[in-house]
Amino acid sequence: MRTHASNIIRHTFAIARKEIWHIIRDPISLFLVGFGPVIMLIIISYAFAVEVRDVPTLVLDLDRTEASRELIERLDATEVLDVIGTADDMSGVERAMDARMARVAVVIDRGLEAMFPAPSGDLLGMVAQLAALAQVGDRGLPVSYIVDGTEPISAETAIETAIKETNAFLVERARALLDMLPSSMQNLPEVQRAREQLETPIALEVITHYNPEEKTLWDLVPAMIAIVLTMPAMSVATVIAKERDQGTLEFLVATPAARLAILTGKMLPYVLIGVFNVLLMYLAAVGVFGLPFRGNLLLYVALMALYEFACLAIGLFFSIVIPNQEAALWVSLMFFLFPGFFLSGMFFPIVAMPLEMRMEAMSFPVSGGVFISRSLFLQGVGLDVVWWAVGILIYVGAIMLALSVLFFKKRIA
Amino acid sequence: MADETVLEALELTKRFGKFTAVDGVSFSLRRGEIFGFLGPNGAGKTTTIRMLLGLLKPTAGRALVFGVDMSKAAHKVRARLGYMSQKFSLYRDLTVEQNLRFYARAYGLSGKRLQERVRYAVEIAGLRGREGERTATLAGGWRQRLALAAGILHEPELLFLDEPTAGVDPVSRRAFWNLIYEIASRGTTVFVTTHYMDEAEHCERLAFIYHGRIVALGSPSEIKREHLPGEVVQVTPDDPETAVKLLREAYEAGTLAARGVNLHGAQARVLTDEPERTLVAVEELLGGAGIGYSDLDVVPPSLEDAFIKLVRDRL
Amino acid sequence: MLNRILNIAWKDFLHLWHNKILLVIVLLGGATELTLVGMATGAPIDDVRTVIYDADGSQISREMIARFEADETFAVTVADEPLPDDLNEIFTGALFGDDYIVAIDIPEGFGEELRAGRRPEVTIHLNAISALAATTARRKAEEILFYYGAEVAWPDVSRDELEAFEPQITVRYNEELDRAQYTTPSEAGFMLYVIAIGVAAFMLAREREFGSFEQLLVMPHHPMEILIGKAIPAVVLGYANFLLMLGVIHFIFGVPIRGSLPLLLVLALFYVLVELGVGFLLALVSRTQHQAVLLVMLVAFVDVAFSGYAAPVESMPPAMQTISLAFPIRHFLIILRGVLQKGVGLEILWPHVLALAALGLLINGAALLLFRRSLASER
Q1: The domain containing residue A286 runs over which residues?
Q2: Smallest CA–CA separation between C1 and chain A, in Å?
Q3: What percent of chain C has a predicted confidence (pLDDT) above 70?
Q4: What is the pLDDT of residues B3-25, one digit of tens each?
Q5: Residues 6 or more apart from B101 whose CB is under 8 A from it?
Q6: Which whole-number Å values give the CA distances from A291 to A197, A379, A382, in the listed order?
Q7: pLDDT tens, position by position, C101-118
C-alpha cells in the first residue's frame, strides 16, 4: 500500500515535470500565462476604477452677475466637474451635449443675484428675504442642470456634486450676509431662525470603514486579482483537448488513483504559476495602486492557491468533456472571464445582495475568490470569517476533480 | 516532346542568416518523368521545393517552371501545378467529399466536370462509399492517398510531392507508389522528395542532396555506376555488430581488400572491386573469430551503398 | 475570383459547422453575454443590509427607522444592544450573524433635540468593502435623514418648498439613469468585434498552425483572395451577433433607437471591417490558435480599458485619453450611443466616422503589410 501511494506521487511529479517542460518550450504562452495576469490587472484597474472626475461641463449664464460667476467658479473648482466653456443659447447646449463635447450643462437663469438682498438699506427686510431664501417657494431656484445620462454612474456623481455645490453656494452666501448684520440684531429670533434653516436639521456624521474615500479602485483591485487568476485555468482547459487533437494522449490508465495522479500532475505547474501571479499582483496592488493589505499574506497566498486549484479543476473538467481544444477554450472563456466580471461584484455589488442570493453566486468559484481576496485585503480578517467560502472552493474543486477522473476514462475509452 | 523541359533549377541558393540551407542547386525535369529528390532530413529538400513553388524567394539563382520565374510570376502557372505538402494533408474536420470539393473549386472546376473529377478521385483513393467520413477518422495510408487524389483533381501537368509517405506503413507505401506510377503514365511530371532509399529506386531520375548541395544526379543505375564501381559482398552474421567491427578493423589495417564496410540492418556489406578475393577473406575473418553467419554472397550495390559512400566521402 | 473567395469562406463555415460547440458560442455567445450583463447591471442596488441601534427609543426615532425600513435600498435590522466599539464585528458578521454594510447609531435624546431644532447628531458607519454599495447607501441615507429631519424640525416648511431649494436637474438620453442602458450598448459594441476578430484570428491562425495555409498559397489563389475569403465568416458572424444583440438591447432592456436604424446598420458593418484587421494582425503574430485566442483576450481587455466601456474617458489621465482615440471601439461606442440614445446622425457623428475610416486604413494596411511579409519569410 505504501509503495503504491509513493508510486502515485512519483507519477504525479513526473507528469508535472513534463507539463512544465511543455509550458517553458512555448515562450509566448509562458509570457502570457506568467505575466499576462499582472499586466491585465494593471490595465483594467486603471480603466475601471477611474474615479469620476473632470466631467466636461458647459455653462449657459443668462444672469451674468457676480453671484453667477461665483457659482461657476465653485463648480469648476471641484474635482468632479470641469468647466470647458460657455454657450450662448440653449441650442448651443443641445449641440454640445449631442456631440458629447459636454456631459453636464449648467444653466443659470436671470435672477440668481437678485435672490440675495442688497447688504444695505432695510436690514429687517433683508433678514426676511434671507429667511425666505431657504424656502424659495414657488419661484424655484434659477439654477438648473442638464446631465447626459448615458453613463449613469458618472452621471450620478455629477448630479450629487452639482446639488451639493449649489446648496453650499447658497448657504455660504446667505450666511455671509447674515454675518454682516450688526451684533445687536444677531439675537433676534428672525435671524436665528434664518441661520437655523441654513443648516441641515440633523448633524450627520458618516464614518466610512475599510475604504474611507469610497474609491472604486480599492474594491476592484482585489476582485481583479481573483478574476485574472482564471487565466491559467483557461490554459489548462485546452491541455487534454490539445493532446487529443494531436493524438498524443498517451495514457490509457486503469486505476482511478493513477488517473488522479495524471490530472493533479497536470494541474500542479499551473497552481505554481498561480502563486507566482498572486505574489506579483499583490506587489502591484500595494506598490502601484497604494492599496492597504490588512490580512495575513501567507494565508492569502494559500487561499488563492486553493482558489486557483478550484478554477483549474473546472478548466480540466471542460478539457475532458469537450471534444476539441478550440471549443474547450471558448467555453472556458465564456464561463470564467465574462460572467466572472459581472457576477463577481465588479459592476454589481454582490456583497450588498441578500444572503440566499449570495450563496448561489458564491458557489460560482470566481465570486468566492473575489470575496476572500477582498476580505483579506481590506478587512484584514482571517479564516474565522471566510471559512464558508473556503469550504465552497474545496467542495467545488473536489467534485470537479472527481468528475474529471470519472469522465477521463470514459472519454478515452 | 519527350525531352521537353518543364522545370529548371538554376544555381538555386537560399540562406537564412548565416546558415546556407540550399547551395547552388541546379537540375531540370523532363515532361512525364518521375524525378526523385533524395536526402536525409534537414538536407534542404523542403526549402528547395518551396523555392520551386514560389513560396520562398531564393537568395540567388532562379527556379523556372514552364519557363516562368517562380519568384516573380508564380501565379501564372499555379493552376498547372499540384502540391501535396509534408506537414498538411487535408482538413481533418471536413469529410472526404468536402475536402475534394474544396480543392476542385479552388482550381476552378465546376458543374459536371467537378462531379466527374471528385468521383474519379474518390475512386483512385479507394474511398468509395466513405465520402461522408471525416478525414480525421481515416488511417494514415488512406489519408495520404486521398491527399494525392486531391492534388491531381485538376489534372496538373507537374505534381510536387513532399515526403508523401513519411510515417506510412510499408504496404500502404507500395500502394501509394503504384498510384504515382499511374499518375505519371497519364503524362503528369512528378517531383517527389523522400528519405527512403527503396523509394528512390522507383524514380526514373534522382538528385541526391546533402547539406544543401546536390552530390549526385542521374538515373539510379547511372548514379550507382558513377559513384560506386564494384560489387558488394553481403553476409548475415549472428552477431552483426561484432562482425562489422571486426571487418572494419581489418579493412582499416589493410588486410581486407575493400572500399568500405557498412552495417545495413542485420547484414554486413563490404564494398569491393575484387569480389572473389574479398568473399574468401570475409569467410576467413568471421570463421577465425568464431562468429556464425549465413547468406554469404556477392550482390550488386544498392543506392543506399552509393549514398553512404557519397556521404562518407564528404565527412 | 469571386468563386475562389466564396469557396474559402464556405470551407471556413464548414469548419464551424463541424464544431458545434464553437458554432453555438459564436452565434449566441454575444446575446447571452449581453443579457447577463444587462441583468447584472440593470438590477438596482436594493436591500443593503443595515443595522440600526436606537438608544433614544422615542416616537420620533422609531418613525425615522420606519422610514429606512420603507425604503427599498435598505434591509433594516434593529439591534437590541449598542453597536460595539470595534465595527469589524458587525461588518464581518461576527456579532449579529450577518455582515452588515451600514450601521446607524441613533443617540439618546435624539427625538427631543430634533424637535427643538438643536441638530442632534446621528452616526452612520459604512462598510465600504464595495465602494459602489457604500456610496449608494450613503446618498440614500443622507436624503432620508434630511427630509425626515426637516419634517420634524421645521414643521412649517413643506416638502415642495424644500425641494424647490435644490437646483432643477434634467437627465437626458437615459432619463432613469438605468445602468443597463449604459452597459448593454457597450457590451454589444464590444462583443460585435470580439466575435469578429476572434473568428478571423482563429481561422487564420488555424491554417497557419496546421500548415494548410501553404497549401492555399500554392493553389491558384491570390493572397488577397484568401484574406477576403477568411474575412467573410468573421464579418457575417460578428454582424449576425450584432443584429441579435441589438434586438436584445432594444426589446429586453428598453434602450430606445432614436436615430436612424439604417445608418447604424451601415456604420456597424463598417466598424466590423475596421476591426477585422486587428484579428488578422493577431493571427499573423501568433504561431498557434492557442496563442491567437490568448492575444485576442489581451487585446480585448486593453480595448475595454481605453474605450469608455466601463468608465467615462474624460475621467482618465490626459495621456490615456489621447491614446484612447487610437482605438476604433471608442469611436464606435460614441456612434452607437449617439444613434440609439441621442438620436443624432452623421451631422454630429462625422468626426468619429472619419476617425474609424482612418484607423481602418491604418490597421488593415498594417495587417496587409504583415501578411505580405509573412508570405515572404515563411520558412
Answers
A1: 2-49+215-412
A2: 30
A3: 97
A4: 689 999 999 999 988 888 999 99
A5: B114, B118
A6: 41, 12, 18
A7: 899 999 999 999 999 888
| Domain match, A121 and A155 both | yes
Identify the band that residue A37 occupies on the pLDDT scale cut at 50, 70 and 90: confident
C-alpha cell at B224: 550507382
Of C7, C19, C220, the CB nearest to B75: C220
Q: Tell me if chain C has a CB within 8 Å of the CB of B262.
A: no
Burial state string for A206-238 with b = 16 or more CB within 10 A and e = fewer than 16: bebbbbeebbbbbbbbbbbbbbbbbbbbbbbbb
Q: Identify which of B16, B47, B106 has the shortest CB distance to residue C7.
A: B106
Question: What's the burial of C274, exposed, middle or buried (CB within 10 Å: 0-12/13-18/19+)?
Answer: buried
Nearest Cβ partner of B106 from C19, C219, C376? Answer: C219
Tell me how close the Cα of B85 comes to any Cα of chain C, in angstroms.
Answer: 7
For residue B61, give the CATH number of its domain: 3.40.50.300
- Report the alpha-carbon distance of residue C96 to residue C103 in Å, rounded: 11
At CA A94, angle to CA A90 and CA A100, rounded to 5?
145
Question: What DSSP element (H or E) covers A154?
Answer: helix A152-179
Cell digits of residue C34: 449581453
Residues B79 and B219 placed together within one structural domain of the fold: yes
- The answer to whether the CB atoms of B105 and C4 lie below 8 A apart is yes
Examine residue A206 and state whether it is found in any structural domain, yes or no: no
Q: Which CATH architecture has domain C48-164?
A: 3-Layer(aba) Sandwich (3.40)
Q: Which residue has the cell 482612418?
A: C358
Q: Do B85 and C11 touch (CB under 8 A)?
A: no
Closest CA to C256 of C193, C318, C175, C316: C175
Beta-carbon pairs below 8 A across chains B and C: 69
pLDDT tens for each residue of A104-161? 999 998 888 877 776 665 666 666 666 565 554 445 688 999 999 888 888 888 998 9
Chain B residues in contact with C211 by the CB 8 A cut-off are 85, 87-88
Phi, psi dihedral angles at C370 (to 5 degrees): -65, -40
Secondary structure E strands in A62-161:
81-86, 104-108, 143-148
Please give the Cα distance from B215 to B306 (Å, whole number).
Answer: 11
Better pLDDT: A239 or C352: C352
The pLDDT score that the predictor gives to residue A129 is: 64
Residue with cell 441638530: C119
Average pLDDT (C5-24) is 88
At how many degrees (to 10) do helices C2-18 and B96-106 cross? Answer: 160
The Cα of B34 is separated from the nearest Cα of chain C by a number of Å equal to: 20
Distance from C-alpha of C2 to C-alpha of C5, rounded to nearest angstrom = 5
Answer for the pair B236, B284: CB distance below 8 angstroms, yes or no.
Answer: no
For the segment B290-311, what is each residue's pLDDT rounded down to a tens digit? 888 888 888 888 888 888 778 7
- B37: containing domain: 5-225
pLDDT for the residue numbered A133: 58
Contact between C164 and A140 using a beta-carbon 8 Å cutoff: yes
Which one of B191, B210, B225 terminates a domain?
B225
Q: What sign does the CA torsion over B117, B122, B125, B131 have?
A: positive
Among the candidates B184, B208, B225, a domain finishes at B225
Q: Are residues A102 and A40 in the same domain?
A: no
CA dihedral C224, C226, C228, C229 (to 10 degrees): 160
The contacts of residue C252 (CB under 8 Å, 6+ apart) are C35, C38
Higher pLDDT: A121 or B69? It is B69
Query: CA A51, CA C315: separation in Å to the nearest integer?
Result: 7
Asked if A162's CB is within 8 angstroms of C167's CB, the reply is: yes
Specify whether A237 is located in the same domain as A384: yes
**Does residue B307 sit in the same domain as residue B211?**
no
CA distance C298 to chain A (A): 7
